Amino acid sequence: MKAISATKATTAKVAGARGIRATCAGRRSVSARAVPLPDLPYDYGALEPYISGDIMKLHHQMHHGTYVKNFNGLLEKQADMENKGDYAGLISIQQAIKFNGGGHVNHSIFWNNMCAKSDYVEPSGALGKKIEETFGGLEALQTKMSAMSAGVQGSGWGWLAYDPAKDSIFVTTTANQDPLVTKGDFVPLLGVDVWEHAYYLQYKNKRPDYLANFFEVVNWKDVEARFAAATA
Length: 232
Ligand SMILES: [Fe+2]
Description:
single chain; about 230 residues; alpha+beta; minor pseudopilin epsh fold; 3-stranded antiparallel beta sheet; two-stranded antiparallel ribbon; about 15% strand; binds fe (ii) ion
């Protein structure tokens, strides 16, 4: 089955998920705005043979779809609690918001970080130079990011990130669906999902094999665009 048109899903959609309106009495009331499940920018089978169409379809529709559904329910609940002044309730759902909202934010970056092999080009320009200066080249970066991502205990994400304070790039990981922002004021450039749902159907328990194939379909043009926006 084919995913529809290209979209550039960004965290901006998440940031705009709440609306505030004034009531007749002049009191402000908060309303939740539903977050849509973004379409993939390619067909489900576009990343084959590196990542199977079955994985992509299940991953997008069922896994990302569930994070979006749960996140929307929580945003509604949050708005309702805020309007009622139920602050203890608000606090009690923050972990669930981090998990499901993080799942939406992370996957939205991940889909656009990949492309068909026919569209693959190695990083160049400012990002290519930064990778060379920081890691000594693309292969060294991939080796480091693969090793760190393979080492994530349980489920999580591997990241190539930008640190605006130091004007530097670095590799790190996050657990579960924690978005990169939980580690500091960093910008995610490239994310790789190392939950088993991202690879088990095709690679079984061989996470390093999945990671090696992931790097065959990285959309470095998208990573470059994210780097350019972060450094502008
Ligand atoms: Fe996932």
